[in-house]
Amino acid sequence: MKLLTAAQTRALDQATTQAQRISSVELMERAATACTNWLLDQLQPAFSTEIHVFCGPGNDGGDGLAVARQLHTAGYAPQVWLLPAEKHSADFLHNQQQLPEAIRCQELSARRLPPLPAGALVLDALFGTGLTRTLEGLPATVVKHLNQSAATVVAVDIPSGLLADAPQPASSAIVRAHHTLSFELPKLAFLLPRNAEFVGEWTVLPIGLDQPFIHNTTVDNYFVDAALLAGRLPQRARFSHKGTFGHALLLAGSYGKLGAAVLAAQACLRGGVGLLTIRTPGVGYTILQTAVPEAMALPDPASDFVTELPELHPYAAVGMGPGLGQEESTAEVLRLLLQQVGSRRALVLDADALNLLGTHRELLQKLPPNTLLTPHPKEFERLVGEPALDDYHRLDQLRAFCREHRCYCVLKGAYTALGTPDGPVYFNSTGNPGMATGGSGDVLTGLLLALRADQRLSPLDAALLGVYAHGRAGDLAAAESGEPGLIAGDLVRFIGPALRELEGDL
Ligand SMILES: NC(=O)C1=CN([C@@H]2O[C@H](COP(=O)(O)OP(=O)(O)OC[C@H]3O[C@@H](n4cnc5c(N)ncnc54)[C@H](O)[C@@H]3O)[C@@H](O)[C@H]2O)[C@H](O)CC1
Ligand SMILES: [K+]
After folding, report:
1. Could you tell me which residues are annotated as the binding site?
2. Which of 41, 52, 375, 453 is deepest in the core (most CB within 10 A)?
3. Boundary (domain end) residue, out of 219, 246, 271
4. 303 and 197 part of one domain
5. Residue bearing the CA closest to ligand 1, atom 3
6. Angle ∠(9,10,11) on CA atoms, nearest 5
7. ipTM of model over 0.85
8. Which residues pair with 42 in a beta bridge?
9. 145 and 279 in one domain?
10. Is 224 contained in some domain?
11. 268 burial type by CB count under 10 A (0-12 exposed, 13-18 middle, 19+ buried)
């Protein structure tokens, strides 16, 4: 799915009314119907539920008025609260006129704020994507009132006070919704860590907006769902051979951290690599040969750390990082690797390989194009050399880093963000908090290494598929064992099923 800016969303509204020859009021009615149906699904059959609909002066408020009317028709008794304003949108005024007299409709003031008890439902239709600045005065007071209440808050389109695609001061008055109902597409703001407390659970409600317009709109950000990945992972042809899926080299592990090498190796094999050779320190030889008999072991002459780079000739892809440690001799291996890997061989760097890049910054200039890096936010901060001011700044840093180094960078977290050399950022949709556990990143590295070794996949497709399948494996594992009980080894077991879901045409 594409993530449109607030300005693009307005243009999409217009394109839709023109292409479908409908009025904007009719489009508003569609949006309201989608909200009402969602609410009815949640509410039924509790007609006694106390419902308060808070409406602002624009079209978000218009949506709220239409929902109030529809809930009334369905047998509920919503109360409407209006924010006083000098100007109202035309569609707001239209829906205000349509409001049945039986619905109690009152104007809000600092002295007239309704009690909102636990069990009550609040519909936040104060402001939507038309918000231009941070809320102050009465709107901010109303938002505070909603946030202090014990009621369940459902936001229409976006929590009021939250900007859809731009940073705002940390002290901004923003509704803390339990659920957010977004029309047709999600908004960039939903995917940023800082906003999780405002957005709550979010749902996209399709309202039939103009698909050709969406198709033809150039965007900076994508939300990666199964539909976006359809057709990107081909089924294996009957006559394919090990060469098709590539021979990968994994440099991983140090004394006490061989588990990282084992997990990455297992994930690489489950990711479908043709052949896998593992370079570990000498101490890892027996461990690897026992735990991962499918792989070949190429032990380093040193016992506790990787100190020498093997001959790279046989390999289609090289992965380096999990559990390596940050010895100076290992940094030297990274330096040689960057010199020798060339631009045709795929490269995946993770964990300590990234930390070494952070401490040996001259190496950053040696990254071959299309290198795939997989930092978590702290590692990313070390890579760019300065902390991010906020989530949007971090995204800017990600874009700048990927452009400068012509690389792909997987910034790990909830909604893992993949930065690409040409600018677009792809936010992943799969995964769960159970995956915040030791070894989870090592599994991702192994899986990505396998997909980068696969000769059929572009660097972008390999990265998108790997990140998505890793999260999906986590979701399948959590369904089996629950989130707290999930360990990285479980992810390995579910890579196969996760990839199978993506194979061929969806
Ligand atoms: N996306 C769709 O396809 C559809 C969206 N709908 C709904 O329309 C809103 C956007 O409506 P719009 O009228 O453009 O803006 P708002 O309702 O968010 O509010 C504009 C209103 O508020 C004033 N204002 C802006 N910022 C502030 C501020 N900081 N303080 C005070 N007042 C402010 C501004 O001057 C205007 O008067 C979208 O979110 C959906 O809910 C359609 O109904 C259906 C299709
Ligand atoms: K809202």
Report:
1. 124, 128-134, 157, 160, 260, 323, 376, 412-416, 441-442
2. 453
3. 219
4. no
5. 13
6. 90
7. yes
8. none
9. no
10. no
11. buried
What does the pLDDT average to over 120-141? 96
Rg (CA), the chain: 26
Higher pLDDT, 295 or 236: 295
pTM for this model (two decimals): 0.96
Q: Is the pLDDT of residue 35 over 70?
A: yes
Cα(128) to ligand 2 centroid in Å equals 5
- Please report, for the domain that includes residue 483, its CATH number: 3.40.1190.20
Contact 203, 179 (CB under 8 A): yes
Q: List CB contacts of 432: < 8 A, sequence separation 6 or more.
A: 471, 474, 475, 478, 483, 486
Among 188-202, 235-249, 290-304, where is mean pLDDT lowest?
Answer: 235-249
- Would you state the structure tokens that stand for residue 163, as one six-digit string? 């900007």
Sign of dihedral through CA atoms 284, 290, 292, 294? Answer: positive
Share of the chain above pLDDT 70, in %: 99
Residue located nearest, by CA, to atom 43 of ligand 1 = 28
CA of 83, nearest ligand number = 1
Please indicate, yes or no, whether residues 22 and 128 belong to a single structural domain of this protein.
Answer: yes
212 CA to centre of ligand 2 in angstroms: 27
398 and 452 share one domain: yes
As a whole number of angstroms, the distance between CA 449 and CA 397 comes to 25
In the predicted model, is pLDDT for residue 506 greater than 50? no
How far does the centroid of ligand 1 lie from the alpha carbon of residue 227, in Å?
A: 30
Ligand nearest to the backbone CA of 182: 1
CATH number where 97 lies: 3.40.50.10260
* HEC string for 370-383: CCEECCCHHHHHHH
Report the binding-site residues for K(+). 124, 160
Q: Which of 77, 149, 78, 80 is nearest to 117 (CA)?
A: 149
Q: Which atom of ligand 1 is nearest to the CA of 133?
A: 29
d(CA 291, CA 267): 12
Contact of 429 with 471, CB cutoff 8 Å: yes
Range(s) of the domain holding residue 107: 2-219
Rounded distance between C-alpha atoms, residue 36 and residue 105, angstroms: 18
- Surrounding residues of ion ligand 2, Cβ less than 5 A: 60, 124, 155-156, 160
What tens digit of pLDDT does each residue of 60-117 get? Answer: 999 999 999 999 999 999 999 999 999 999 999 999 999 999 999 999 999 999 999 9
Q: Whose CA is nearest to atom 41 of ligand 1?
A: 60
Which residue among 192, 219, 246 closes a domain?
A: 219
> Do residues 252 and 260 lie in contact, with contact meaning Cβ atoms separated by under 8 Å?
yes
pLDDT digits (tens, 9 = 90+) for 318-354: 999 999 999 999 999 999 999 999 999 999 999 999 9
Q: Which two tokens stand for residue 191?
A: 């995917």
